[in-house]
Every structure is written in structure tokens, then in C-alpha cells.
Amino acid sequence: MEAVIRPHPSRNCAPAYDEQLYKERHIVEIFFNRVKHFRRVATRFEKTARNYLAIVHIACIIEWLF
User: Fold this and answer.
1) Is 45 helix (H, G, I), strand (E, B) or coil?
2) Residue 1 to residue 37: CA distance in whole angstroms
């Protein structure tokens, strides 16, 4: 695994990074942030892993539709 973090623009010698991979990483992070806004997902109210996974699937479907 390789860290894909954009370097600060004011650095004199900025390390190289993959811009396309950085954009994809950003999209994934935004998605997880949106899913965590669902209270049942964030607080893990469900007692079993099966039920929790079902709630995560429902949250993902809702985010995908809207």
C-alpha cells in the first residue's frame, strides 16, 4: 500500500504523487463520510454483524440513489 497524499504547494522539493489515484481516494473518503452521517451506522446500534452489514448496505443504496 502506498500513501497518496498531495504535497503542500509551498514545498521547495515536492514529492511525486499520482493525481488520478488521489482523486479516486478523495471520492472514496467523501462516500464514507456521507455514510457515517447515518446514525445507525455511526453508532453501531445493531448487535449482530449481519444486521449491521444490512444497515450499511441500506445506507449505501440511499447514498447511491441521492
Assistant:
1) coil
2) 28
- What spatial distance separates the first Cα and last Cα of the chain, rounded to whole Å? 32
- Tens digit of each residue's pLDDT (9 = 90 or more) over 9-63: 888 887 788 889 889 988 989 998 999 899 988 888 888 999 999 999 999 999 9
Using alpha carbons, select from 34, 6, 11 the residue that is nearest to residue 22. 6
Helix (H, G, I), strand (E, B) or coil at 47: coil
The predicted pLDDT at position 1 comes to: 65
Residue type, 65: L
As to burial, measured by CB atoms within 10 angstroms (0-12 exposed, 13-18 middle, 19+ buried), residue 52 is middle
| CB-neighbour burial class of residue 28 (10 A; exposed 0-12, middle 13-18, buried 19+) | exposed
